């Protein structure tokens, strides 16, 4: 069985309940999940098992963009070590699999290559999101991973104005139901995509704030398909998930 090494943890998100939910949905399609708040542990697994699925479901970044983060920096500010950068880059570029969820696009902000690996990311000063709330999710009809799945609604944070690599293939667009007085989000936003980095396969899914989002039946199936596709399973296996 293929290991899914899940790096998680961070501020203002219920990772302690959401990451186990993610682990269970991956376990249900044949992965052996390992959930860790320790990036060194995850990198160790990735190095010893190059066929593993690297999953980044965390919110760890420098926290230097605004003084509102100052009270939390001592506990939560994160600098991406050079060895971690090299290990992740090597894993994906040489054919490894990466599944990145939600706040992963904010992670590792001191590492310029990270959004190039993801195929996009959060751009400070432009990207934003309304509060957690109802959202309409539209699947790209041309995307093989979405074949046979219907559009759906769920409660989540819809990231807007993400930076997107032109080579990335959009999988999901979403639109938040914005309450009066909140930051407007204009129309459907591309929030999930597939991407190639070197010889590796990457899926980013900007949804997934909490376990409820991850366990939405359609979202759950989409994540399972994404994970199987990333590690190179035959499409018959991917579509059956």
Produce the secondary structure layout:
Blueprint: E1 2-10, H1 15-27, E2 31-36, H2 39-48, E3 53-59, H3 73-76, H4 82-93, E4 97-101, H5 113-118, E5 120-121, E6 133-139, E7 152-156, E8 163-164, E9 169-176, E10 189-197, E11 200-205, H6 211-214, H7 217-230, H8 235-240
Parallel strand pairs: 1-2, 1-3, 3-4, 4-11
Antiparallel strand pairs: 5-8, 6-7, 6-9, 9-10, 10-11
Helix pairs in contact: 2-4
Describe it:
This protein is an alpha/beta fold and 241 residues long. The protein has a 9-stranded mixed beta sheet, with helices on both faces. A two-stranded antiparallel sheet has the order 5-8. It is globular. Helices cover 29% and strands 27% of the residues. The model has no long low-confidence stretch (mean pLDDT 95). A hairpin with a 2-residue loop joins strand 10 and strand 11. The chain has 8 helices and 11 strands. It has helices at residues 15-27, 39-48, 73-76, 82-93, 113-118, 211-214, 217-230, 235-240; strands at residues 2-10, 31-36, 53-59, 97-101, 120-121, 133-139, 152-156, 163-164, 169-176, 189-197, 200-205. The chain has one domain (2-125, 191-240): 3-Layer(aba) Sandwich (Rossmann fold), CATH 3.40.50.880. Helix 2 (39-48) runs parallel beside helix 4.
